[in-house]
Amino acid sequence: MKAPSLCLLVILAFCALGEGTALAQVVPDIPDVEITGEYGPFLPTLASKDGGEVDQLISILHWFMAVLFVGWGIFFVYCLVRFRQREGHQAKYEPIKAKVSKYGEIAVAGFEVALLVGLSMPIWASVKNDRPTEADNPFRVRVIAEQFQWNFHYPGADGVFGKTGAEFVDTAENPAGIDPNDPGGQDDVVKGELHIPVDRPIIADLSSKDVIHSFFLPVMRVKQDTIPGMRIPVWFEATMTGIFEIACAQLCGNNHYSMKALMYVQSEQEVEDWIKKASIVEEFDEDDLD
Amino acid sequence: MSDDHHPQLGFIRKYVFSVDHKVIGIQYMLTAMCFMFFGLCLMSMMRWQLAYPGEVMPILGSLTETFMPGGIMLPEFYNALGAMHGTIMVFLAVVPILVGGFGNYVMPLQIGAPDMAFPKLNMMSYWVFAAGGVVMLVSFFVPGGAANSGWTSYAPLSVVATTGQTYWLIGMVLLITSSLLGSVNFIVTIVHLRVKGLTMFRLPFFVWAQLVTAFLLLLAFPPLEAAGLLQLMDRVAGTSFFMPEGLVVSGEVASYTGGGSPLLYQHLFWFLAHPEVYVLVLPAMGIVVEVLTNNTRKPLWGYRTIIYSTVFLGFMSFLVWAHHMFMTGMGTQLGAFFATTTMIISIPSVIILTAMVITLYNGSIRFNVPMLFALAFLPMFAIGGLTGLPLGLPASDIQLHDTYYVIGHFHYVVAPGTIFAIFAGIYYWFPKATGKQLNSMLGKLHFWLSFICINIAFAPMFWQGLAGVSRRLYDQTTYEHGKAVQELTKLSSYGVWLLALSQLPFILNFFASIFAGKKASANPWDATTIEWSAPSPPPHGNFAKVPVVHRGPYEYTVPGAAKNFLPQTEASEA
Amino acid sequence: MFNSKTVATVSMVTFALVAMSGVAHADANVITGKVIFKGNAGDYKRKVIDTSKDPNCKKAKTKIGSQKVIINKKTTPMTLRNVLVSIKDGLGNKMFPTPSEPVVLTQFGCQYKPHVFGIVAGQKLKILNGDNTNHNIHFLPKKNQEHNFTQPKKDMENGKVITLVEEDVFKVKCDVHPWMGCHIGVFKHPFFNVTGKDGTFTLTGMPDGTYTLEAWHEEFGKQTASVTVEGGTANVDLTFEPGA
Ligand code: HEM
Ligand SMILES: [Cu+2]
Ligand SMILES: [Cu+2]
User: Fold this and answer.
1) Which residues of chain C are in CATH 2.60.40.420 domains?
2) Cβ of residue B117 lying under 6 Å from some atom of ligand 1
3) Nearest-CA neighbor of B227 among B172, B187, B287?
4) Whether residue A114 sits in one domain with residue A72
């Protein structure tokens, strides 16, 4: 067995070459904030009220899959060993009556039905239909995706979102395209950070200006495509404060990979203060003509 | 007989513009194998960027200064490689190998036919396919590079994308046309050209798989062809089938009016692309069944059950497409419908797989090279199938949709699954096609290396996916959850590169055996199906005497028979 | 078929011939002037751009201002920066050599430098990234090719080099930093200039003649003025009066 070990050596040398050549930094330096939560080769930290159900389903499914695979695998390996071709062993022409397999298949089907009807459908129904009512006092924000950033549109103190239109969009100064003549829009705030209160239902209205993106909050177990021409709401409730990442989960062009935003889960007061501060338009130094 | 019916042809008519299904099959096979290797090379480059984001690529780094300035891959190039890897693997490698290659070569032999029903149409399919391939390759060199909107080419991204996308669409239209021509030919051939005695339920399962596949292609491809043409119009003629009003692209108000729908494109695409997934596995299952029965030396367990399941699977595959679209804002009714059909379609798959494993029971298993690949198909396909469950339930799909979990899932089906079946087929039918045996030492080396490496390549993706890493991500370390699993990504990359190297014994074996391999007899595996009663390699016209079929396809170890196997064409002794 | 080298050789020979025939020899003529802003400067206060999305942008300069309208209030009358002034009419069919020096566009501190500029058709445009971050340069022309590419890393040596065909002013945008935009006008001739901080411009080297000048501003559009220059310096001012 010389050839395989030789291949291995070549490849390892190849890999080692890579280790040595850390020349450039492609990723923008990560902001000087520390992301909250634990991340590893399993589901990341859970920070939402209803996300637990999704996790539970995922874990049940994987146990189910593991049991099936191991059971099936044992039978498979048993067959390979027991029925290998050898001196004095002959195949049997008559098919076996595989009752066990029939029951097994029925059991698998039954379990799938149980998962579907018992878990998936109710969770999906609540994700889709249990929109927080006015009585729940939801916090509202609009999320406007564009190549390659997230814009978060807050209604400001009056709680009213200004009218928007494509014709008003200015990527630098009016990314949401708020009608400058609409009184409801005067105190609106549009920023690239999401600040939301903890322990209060959030309703985020998703839309996109150009192509399809996908609003993905890994720690909240929330994912929803943003589709141009449509406005799609999602809702969730954060249960822990901290700074989390928002990802784009649908290929949206060259810099899809860098379409990240930060989500600050804070107390009511902190969110309010931040919005107030963000609504002040800062003027540039008049003497600086750069 | 062959000389009277087939006058001597020149080299070009015999080997280039041939109408012989075997030559066309081999043409398909070789072209598509090259594309497959090319697809793997593209992926090997991408895996460098994934493992060592933004670092200078060794060896291949100086390939293109435009897209890898200073040897560092640009994001747009990464996206183009990804889109082209997917497109090439699906439409230029796996389907042409399974249908164009094996289907063309083996199917007419297995039904005892002298050729396909429409040999010229068959030749045309190949050349239209080749033209499609050329267009796809050329697209790498147009300004802006090849298509970079994913193999799914979702509008509006694809409509506003660079010129490469136009080439992609034209290439796809050609490839689809080729497949449609081929599928009609297959259906007519299987229905009309079976020899005497070969009833539908005496057909080898491989032929059944080809038949169902041909129907899938015939019914599923037209919507994609339409979608492709509509998208082409959106790009070049200013229509707005898939473009809604009020778009602001790159800061400029876009001039699309008329209220097109991006979701319409997705529905049209997946209406094809889900059945397409079965196009990628059914013929593979066909190959595995042929090899499995031959090497367990006993009949296939549940022959009819498998066939009924396959037909049902084919039918159901038209009713599950929107499970790719749970996250587009689908409501509860549609969600429930597509989740239910998805669970239903998993049942026939389970049945087929179970039948294959039960076939092993009471067998006398020969571990030759084709059998190793066929056996490996089973657990690999099982992993691929099982991991489809969490993606088929909308609730768990929330977290896993469009992550590496999806990549892991379908690659277990198509890479260690289908590709292993393809190798099983190559090792199994190589003696028939060339009259030479492949070296089995090198074959075993190839198998074990591939088996280990391919699992190193794909298994880490499930954990990556659970962690939340999106697919199509140029640099996952942008995200905290990506950084946390970067080591797994590296591991996976090592797997891919080792996998690429593991193909060397195969390539060596392939060419060495053609020129200097051991001579193979007409029936080296003691097999029963009709193709083994033709000489190796079969002449133009295939059979010296029109065969007559006396029994089912898998009569091994029949009690009381003189031989361990009873070929379909041999008159009964009793 | 025609690679850039042959084109370059052919055009150089052509230029040489043209130059020898004395059609367009470099004259010492100069046209100078300023671009005046008339109106209420208070309506055009510059905002500070929110660059919090990418902390690397802050590294070059802590605050950057909106680039749209930059009025110098210290001059009398008030003048406008970033106005592209060029000869629109009067050169007839004369041809002028393409400068061999490239025009350099730099991305620095997540701003394009320069913000507005002209270039001669066929002249090299070299695009550099001076930031430690990823930029995506997206050309939005009508006639030229729609370049759309990334520069993910700092690269002040090689950059990306492209050439353009003649076209009215069009926008170039960064798809990663929405505030980043610049404007390019591509001309047949080298007689154009962009007003500086003091609002002045200088065009040099045109043959004697009477010309129509065009001034282009990103917010206020176009203005034209006529000027005659004969063996010396001519002076002409252009005025933008929004709302008038
Ligand atoms: C055998 C070696 C293969 C390797 C190592 C491999 C690896 C990968 C990886 C890592 C990706 C994800 C890229 C990304 O998301 O950025 C990918 C995508 C994909 N692969 Fe493969 N693959 C292989 C074979 C195949 C085969 C045989 C097929 C099809 C039959 C296939 C079809 C696809 C498709 C359709 C995509 C999605 C492309 C897209 O995102 O648009 N691959 N592959
Ligand atoms: Cu995006
Ligand atoms: Cu930028």
Assistant:
1) 97-188
2) no
3) B172
4) yes
A149 to chain B, closest Cα gap in Å: 11
| Residue A30 resides in a domain | no
What pLDDT digit, counting tens, does each position of B455-483 carry? 999 999 999 999 999 999 999 999 999 99
Nearest CA in chain C to A190: C50
Lowest-confidence range among B206-215, C58-67, C157-166, C230-239? Answer: C58-67
Closest chain A residue to the Cα of C150, Cα to Cα: A254
Q: CA C167 → CA B253, C116, C141, C195, distances in Å? A: 20, 14, 8, 20
Distance from CA of A278 to the nearest CA of C (A): 10
Query: Any idea of the CA torsion for A92, A94, A96, A102, to the nearest 10 degrees?
Result: 140
pLDDT at C21: 43
Structure confidence by residue, pLDDT tens digits, A228-247: 988 999 999 999 999 999 99
Task: Reply yes or no on domain C97-188 having CATH 3.40.50.300.
Answer: no
Which chain A residue has the Cα nearest residue B472? A251
Domain boundaries, chain B: 17-243+258-533
| Total count of domains within chain A | 2
B516 compared with B259, residue with greater pLDDT: B516
| Protein residue closest via CA to atom 34 of ligand 1 | B86
Closest CA relative to residue B567, chosen from B51, B95, B110: B110
CA of B12 to the centre of ligand 2 (A): 51
Q: B298 and chain A: CB distance < 8 Å anywhere?
A: yes
Range of the domain at A59: 51-85+99-129
Q: Which atom in ligand 1 lies closest to the alpha carbon of residue B78?
A: 16
Residues 6+ apart with CB under 8 A from A135: none
CA pair distance B405, B383, nearest whole angstrom: 12
Considering the domain architecture, whether residues A139 and A121 belong to the same structural domain is answered as no
C201 pLDDT higher than 50 = yes
A163: in domain: yes
Q: Which residues of B, range 321-360, sit inside 8 Å of A by Cβ?
A: 327-329, 331-332, 335-336, 339-340, 343, 346-347, 350-351, 354, 357-358, 360
Residue A173 shares a structural domain with residue A265: yes
pTM of the predicted protein model: 0.90
Rounded to a whole number, what is the distance in Å from the CA of C114 to chain A's nearest CA? Answer: 10
Q: What is the mean pLDDT of chain A?
A: 85
Taking 60 as the threshold, does the pLDDT of residue C25 lie above it? Answer: no
Which of C120, C173, C179, C131 lies closest to C154, judged by CA? C131
Which strand (E) or helix (H) includes residue C42? Answer: none
Which of A100 and C173 is assigned the larger pLDDT? C173
Distance of alpha carbon C9 from alpha carbon B83, whole angstroms: 39
Residue contact B354–A104, C-beta within 8 A? yes
Phi first, then psi, for residue B459 (nearest 5°) are -60, -40
A50 touching C (Cβ < 8 Å): no
- Tens of pLDDT, residue by residue over A123-135, are 888 888 888 888 8
Q: Chain C residues contacting B, CB < 8 Å? A: 134, 138, 140, 145-150, 152-153, 155, 158, 160, 171, 173, 175, 178, 181
CATH, range B17-243+258-533? 1.20.210.10
What is the spatial order of strands in the sheet that C221-229 belongs to? C192-194, C84-89, C209-217, C221-229
| pLDDT, tens digit (0-9, with 9 covering 90-100), for B4-25 | 455 567 778 777 888 999 999 9
Q: Any idea what the CATH number is for the domain that residue A220 is in?
A: 2.60.40.420
Whether C153 and A172 lie within 8 Å, measured CB to CB: no
Q: Which residue, among B346, B331, B417, B327, has the nearest Cα to B388 in the 3D structure? A: B346
Q: What is the mean pLDDT of residues B493-518?
A: 95
> Is residue B511 over pLDDT 70?
yes
Q: What is the mean pLDDT of residues A78-104?
A: 87
Q: What is the mean pLDDT of chain B?
A: 92
- Name the pLDDT band for A100 (thresholds 50, 70, 90): confident
Closest C-alpha residue for ligand 1 atom 15: B472
Q: How far apart are CA B492 and CA A66, in angstroms?
A: 22
